[in-house]
Amino acid sequence: MVQAYILIQTEVSRAREVASNIRPIAGVVRVDAVTGPYDVIALTEAKTVDELGQMIMSKVQLVPGITRTLTCSVVNI
């Protein structure tokens, strides 16, 4: 299983809406609103890196209100 955190910047006052729209996406494990340079952080998982990339690009990044994302892969050290 491959996991990644997606750090999400949203349009002003749309963090709650963006978080609500991301939660039901298959592969999204957890979504939290946060303070700082990002507004929402989502923990995601998939069977492969390719599946994870497809989910992020074809579903998460298309959610209205998102202005920027940064994907951080989880590594086991």
Describe the overall structure.
It contains 2 helices and 4 strands. The chain is an alpha+beta fold and 77 residues long. It has one domain: Lrp/AsnC effector binding domain/regulation of amino acid metabolism (RAM) domain (Alpha-Beta Plaits, 2-Layer Sandwich). Strands 2-3-1-4 form a 4-stranded antiparallel β-sheet. Strand 2 and strand 3 form a beta hairpin. The longest helix has 10 residues. It is globular, with a radius of gyration of 12 Å. The protein starts with a strand and ends with a strand. The model has no long low-confidence stretch (mean pLDDT 97).
How would you sum up this structure in a few lines?
With 77 residues, the chain is an alpha+beta fold.
What distinguishing features does this structure have?
single chain, 77 residues, alpha+beta, Alpha-Beta Plaits, 4-stranded antiparallel β-sheet, 2 helices
What topology emerges from the helices and strands here?
Elements (H helix, E strand, L loop, with lengths): L1 E9 L4 H8 L5 E6 L6 E7 L2 H10 L7 E8 L4
Antiparallel strand pairs: 1-3, 1-4, 2-3
Number of helices: 2
Count of beta strands: 4
Strand content: 35-45%
Q: What's the arrangement of strands in the largest beta sheet? A: 2-3-1-4
Radius of gyration: 12 Å
Instruction: Write down the CATH class.
Output: Alpha Beta
The average pLDDT value, as a whole number, equals 97
Helix content: 10-25%
Largest sheet: 4 strands, antiparallel
CATH-level-4 superfamily name: Lrp/AsnC effector binding domain/regulation of amino acid metabolism (RAM) domain
Distance between the termini: 15 Å
Extract low-pLDDT stretches.
none
